[in-house]
Amino acid sequence: MEATGFSILTAIIFIPIIAGVVILFLDGKNRDLVRGVGITAASAVLALSLAVFFGYDNFVKAGGGLVEQQMSMLAAGGQLSGTQMFADALAFEQRVVWVESLGIAYHVGVDGVSAPMVLLTGMVAVAGVLISWNITDRLREFMAFFMFLVAGVFGVFIAVDLFMLFFFYELAIFPMYLLIAGWGWVKLREYASMKLTLYILVGSVFALVGAVAMYFTAGSYFSGPGAEVLRAAVESGILPADSGAYSWSIVQLTLAAENGAYAIDILGVEGLSFAKFWFPFMFMGFGVLAGLFPFHNWSPDGHVAAPTAVSMIHAGVLMKVGAFAALRAGVQLLPEGAESHLPWMVFLTLINVVYGALIAFRQRDFKYVIGFSSVSHMGLVSMGWATMNLTGMTGAGIQMFSHGAMTALFFGVVGMVYDRAHTRDIPSLGGFMKVMPWVGIAFVIGGLTSMGMPGLSGFIAEFPIFQGMWAASEQITLQLGIFELSNYYSVLVIISALGIVITAAYVLRVAGQVFFGEFDAARFHDVGNIEMTDRIVLIILGAPLIILGLYPPIMAPMIESGIRPLIALLGGG
Amino acid sequence: MEFDLWAQLPSVLPEIGLTALAIVVLFADCYGSQITRRNVVYISALAMALLALVPLIWLPDPALYENGTLLWGGMVNYDPLAQIFKVMLLLGGAVTCVLAAGDKGVGDKGEFYLIVIIATLGGLMMSSASDLILVFVALETLSIPLYMLASFRRGDARSAESGMKYFLYGAFASAIMLFGFSLLYGFTGTTNLAAIADSMNSLDDGLVAVMAALVMVVVGFGFKIGAAPFHFWTPDVYEGAPTPVTAFVSVSSKAASFALLLRFMTAVFPADLVIAGVVIQDFWINLLVVVSIISMSLGNIVALRQTNIKRLLAYSSIAQAGYTLIGVAALQGADPDLAVASVSFYMFMYIFTNLLVFGGAILFIAKTDSEEISDLAGLNRRSPWLALFMTIGLLSLGGIPPTAGFFGKFFLFQAAVNANLVGLALIAVSNAIIALYYYLVVIKVMYVDVGPDDDVAIGIPRVYGWSLGITALVVILLGTIAVTPIYNWATLGAAGL
């Protein structure tokens, strides 16, 4: 798609920012006004993100368009066409030069992977505002920071400029810190919020140094041997006419990767190329936020300590920000590094899947169960990236959306139960289906999704990931000194299937103990059914799980179109 | 060469303006009516803000600075570097005056503004000095008023102690630096910075003496910018001095010294200076790298243990000096433009950021008479705006977007990576994380903790609130849309070096 003047994506970023600033200037005592501004902004953003999602859907499904072109390029071998494919797949673009001398631009756009994420963020934004409807303590500040957080998350998903990606990534972190520290669960919030913030920042700043190194390496490539490549790219319209050699544009950095600019040896070590050295920094730096083992430790505590709305956006969307950025800034920009590192990093993702599920099984606290289940499910996303083939990575893309909606739904459910029962201790709850049927049904839907039940979105996400692992198994070998490990992905699939079994076990346990069984009417005498706002939350988050499960073509072709450029970059035909 | 007064005048116009202002303020304070005296603060602040426009109107002449033509008999170099630092020092002085206005025992005395003006004058001279004599005179013109300011609250023992300590350490550092200068003069026979480099280049031996002079100069600068291991004065002076003074010391002396450091090092010890086969630049770059690492690490780690807000900011400023030195060390790279620009931009944003944080602290300390961080508890409830302003400032110090600090740090790290100092950049980012911890703790105390006086609102005087608000806005703008113009301007700075 051609770059247009004003993009709807710009509105998506700036509406929450403006709403946040406006809310700060409102009278804090007038809660209805604060809520009104908040829900208006969030609904507007949701409407716009629906427009983006379906607009992109049309773009992908248009006859003779993007998909056919991608297929023919891949059929031709895919060499040196990844950048072209990526640039062609971007839609709703807008580019404004920000710091010209450094090649930094405000450049937004969506592709097949980010369009569903934009929709997810819009959904969770509305759900988050609704579920915070009854907050009484400093609602004004809460709502304003929540809006800034939403803006930061949107910014990461739609950034086509690597610098801008970092800018919004870091922008999201601070409001999250304050929201958890200020409005979270009193017992844990100070510890958990600080831990979470520092973990995420450590990852991102190391990635930032890697990105700066990448910027200079690509720049010196384009100002020297690659000058011709740059000129050709500008002429064919992949890059804008004012592109200099040094640029933060993800398209341009991808072009450098594709032409081998990062294949140079560094630190004077034979065989240690730039890409191989920096890939772990980039991938794991962002992987921290995706809960990648062994850097997942912040996540359960952070989710449990956070107020419900923040847990929802955090587990639902922010962890995807990490997985998404690891894909964008790691796999896409350093494909050579991905090929040499992901074959061992897949073991980490396996630990995520199985170990996360096992710990979730052991928890007594309802919210911790969901927290660890997120660790487990996010492992599947990273595992999907590690397959490095179309099937597996597409599955991971769907899993990002599916898990996002599902986990936000779970945290919504936990919040609704906790607000009324004032405890999250699983054994002391019971029979809540009777008093809160909506919540109970929502939990069952979410639970079935997380087990991978066919007909729900979890199945169409997890199945392709496992399928992709099988398919990748024959192609990937891991060299460990003199040992060579081959065909081991298939073994990993079998082990990770265990994770699904354990998931089923803990979901059924929680469902059985919390929602069925005896209801202690004496203890929970004031527990009543939920309000309208809560029902809307459950519908917004629950319905997509069913729709996507019954009708995968609503999202799968889109994500595939976003993954194909990566397949070309990874050298796959 | 014929002396053309009109061509040379713009280079010292702000200095002349400040001198005139100092005289006006002195007389207004001594002989003015009650009302005049109360308005001395606004006269000073407004005049300094207007003087900040002077370098923007009478621009440096590229025909002069690009080929190194000096003005006023070789004393002054009026180039974009001098220009940007003059503007930021004047703005910093103006903001300081407004922030001090309400402070009892400090802001209600006219001579406070007089001394601030004279110190700013010294800073301005430092940013364009290109002769050893003027360098030293400028340094002392800045330092001596600062010693006086530190002990401004005469009745307070801590303030007196602070002034005395600052004076003793400062005089010691000046003496060492002066000894270094005299060595440089001794074996070159000239006081002009560029000429010193030229005649050292022809030296065959004397390496040890040059190194000794270099080390002494670096020690002197290390003291002025408050870098470790020359930082011992910082915490005590910061804590003991009246808070508006601390704010002023923390920004003006540091910014002016960095301007001078950039100019001095590139002029006297340039990249092509080789004595007895030793590249002098490699030596001082390594020295600065070491000082930078010690400063960052020590400043940040010790800051973790502080409970007093002023001491916390003192250690934080040691760490900030360490970060900024990264930019100076990056001068060794292929693109000194990036290095100079990163230092200039960092100082530009640091002045506003630090004044914002101190501005919040000044008001809080004045209202509650407490400097303990724990007493900030519940500030968000007591005064939402004050808490928000301080938060913006602290986030900028920590380098979190959308505040100016994010770009400041980014430019420094970028310059470092470009100069093949990747290791230094990695140490710096690790330090930035440690630093963020204690900034976040302060923010947490303000927003989360519950204090005993939670219901007692803290009112902000109108002028004060507006000046804090504008400063906060500047910090946000410098982190978003104003980055490009300021950064491009800062990039010009290397042209005259």
Question: Secondary-structure blueprint of this entry?
Answer:
The complex is a heterodimer of chains A (573) and B (497).
Chain A: H1 8-25, H2 31-61, H3 66-75, H4 82-89, E1 91-99, E2 104-110, H5 114-131, H6 139-158, H7 162-183, H8 189-223, H9 227-235, H10 250-258, H11 274-287, H12 298-305, H13 308-332, H14 335-362, H15 366-387, H16 390-421, H17 432-435, H18 437-451, H19 457-473, E3 477-480, E4 483-486, H20 489-515, H21 532-550, H22 556-569
Antiparallel strand pairs in A: 1-2, 3-4
Helix pairs in contact in A: 1-2, 1-6, 2-5, 2-6, 3-22, 4-10, 4-22, 5-6, 5-13, 5-16, 5-21, 6-7, 6-13, 7-8, 7-13, 8-10, 8-11, 8-12, 11-13, 11-14, 12-13, 12-15, 13-15, 13-16, 14-15, 14-20, 15-16, 15-19, 15-20, 16-18, 16-19, 16-21, 16-22, 18-20, 18-21, 19-20, 19-21
Chain B: H1 5-8, H2 13-31, H3 34-38, H4 40-51, H5 54-57, H6 62-65, H7 80-100, H8 110-128, H9 132-150, H10 157-188, H11 193-201, H12 207-225, H13 233-240, H14 243-268, E1 274-275, E2 278-279, H15 280-303, H16 309-329, H17 336-368, H18 379-382, H19 384-398, H20 404-418, H21 422-447, H22 462-478, H23 483-492
Antiparallel strand pairs in B: 1-2
Helix pairs in contact in B: 2-4, 2-8, 4-7, 4-8, 7-8, 7-14, 7-17, 8-9, 8-14, 9-10, 9-14, 10-11, 10-12, 10-13, 12-15, 13-14, 13-16, 14-16, 14-17, 15-16, 15-21, 16-17, 16-20, 16-21, 17-19, 17-20, 17-22, 17-23, 19-21, 19-22, 20-21
Structural description of this entry:
The complex is a heterodimer of chains A (573) and B (497). With 573 residues, chain A is mostly helical. In chain A, helix 19 packs antiparallel against helix 20. Chain A contains 22 helices and four strands. Helices cover 71% and strands 4% of the residues of chain A. Chain A has a two-stranded antiparallel sheet. Chain A has a two-stranded antiparallel sheet with strand order 3-4. Chain A has helices at 8-25, 31-61, 66-75, 82-89, 114-131, 139-158, 162-183, 189-223, 227-235, 250-258, 274-287, 298-305, 308-332, 335-362, 366-387, 390-421, 432-435, 437-451, 457-473, 489-515, 532-550, 556-569; strands spanning 91-99, 104-110, 477-480, 483-486. Chain B has helices at residues 5-8, 13-31, 34-38, 40-51, 54-57, 62-65, 80-100, 110-128, 132-150, 157-188, 193-201, 207-225, 233-240, 243-268, 280-303, 309-329, 336-368, 379-382, 384-398, 404-418, 422-447, 462-478, 483-492, and strands at residues 274-275, 278-279. In chain B, helix 7 runs antiparallel to helix 14 (243-268). Chain B is globular, with a radius of gyration of 22 Å. By secondary structure, chain B is mainly alpha-helical. In chain B, a hairpin with a 2-residue loop joins strand 1 (274-275) and strand 2 (278-279). Chain B is built from 23 helices and two strands. Chain B has a two-stranded antiparallel ribbon with strand order 1-2. The interface between A and B is medium-sized, with 36 and 34 residues.
